[in-house]
């Protein structure tokens, strides 16, 4: 063909050469395509940048479509909508996401690559530390969890992880109480994990009352910020929270 083996399309098109007839069909097709490109270049029209999208080549860029083309698509997790909620605190949601995937470095997982490590929970010192134990079968963390959510969860209250996931994914619940349960879960998860890490690195375990008050205040502050934003349907959230605290 008179074109270098590793030439780019641009180099092949701009290469000064005479068109040939070939015995191999695909080479003739390449010649035809190169000829078509040259004719378009000679038309005097300006080049236009296009993006390859699912619906074809378009001049408009779509971050969503490009992302979908690049990623490996998988079915949505059943708990996804219970974790990635509107008005979430990012660092809380991130820890909740890791916990849902069982990717937190709990001691039962750490000992798989660090043999001989003591697996005892640093909060209660009475059982092996696993995700299910830490959230919230541990005698320390379960008291925090119960204090924060027992009122809002009512008869569906539980301290077992799998049952908690069922509750936070139950969209038939009233919108405001469901948000309070979801946000409270994320706040408690984050705080328990933070306290656990501090104790693991030599700090003293804080009294339960301090943690409870800090969490309650943090949730109230979040609700107050939401009220200032005048979010539709969330106007009386603070009154609802106080009603559950009585």
TrEMBL record:
| Superkingdom of the source species | Eukaryota
- What range(s) does the Reverse transcriptase zinc-binding domain occupy? 61-145
Quote the protein name from its UniProt record. Uncharacterized protein LOC130494878
Tell me what organism the protein belongs to. Answer: Raphanus sativus (Radish)
């Amino acid at each position: 063909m008179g074109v270098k083996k590793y030439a780019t399309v641009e180099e092949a098109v701009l290469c000064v050469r005479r068109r040939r007839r070939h015995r191999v069909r695909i080479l003739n097709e390449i010649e035809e395509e190169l000829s078509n490109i040259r004719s378009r270049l000679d038309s005097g029209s300006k080049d236009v940048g296009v993006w390859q999208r699912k619906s074809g080549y378009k001049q408009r860029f779509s971050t969503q479509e490009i992302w979908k083309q690049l990623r490996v698509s998988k079915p949505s997790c059943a708990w996804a909508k219970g974790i990635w909620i509107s008005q979430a605190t990012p660092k809380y949601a991130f820890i909740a996401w890791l916990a849902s995937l069982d990717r937190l470095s709990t001691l039962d997982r750490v000992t798989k690559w660090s043999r001989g490590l003591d697996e005892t929970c640093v909060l209660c010192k009475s059982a092996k530390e696993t995700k299910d134990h830490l959230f919230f079968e541990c005698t320390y963390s379960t008291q925090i969890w119960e204090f924060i959510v027992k009122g809002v969860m009512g008869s569906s209250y539980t301290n077992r992880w799998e049952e908690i996931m069922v509750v936070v994914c139950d969209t038939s619940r009233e919108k405001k109480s469901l948000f309070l349960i979801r946000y409270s879960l994320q706040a408690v998860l984050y705080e328990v994990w933070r306290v656990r890490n501090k104790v693991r690195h030599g700090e003293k375990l804080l009294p339960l009352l301090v943690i409870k008050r800090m969490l309650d205040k943090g949730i109230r502050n979040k609700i107050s910020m939401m009220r200032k934003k005048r979010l539709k349907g969330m106007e009386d959230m603070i009154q609802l929270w106080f009603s559950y605290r009585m």
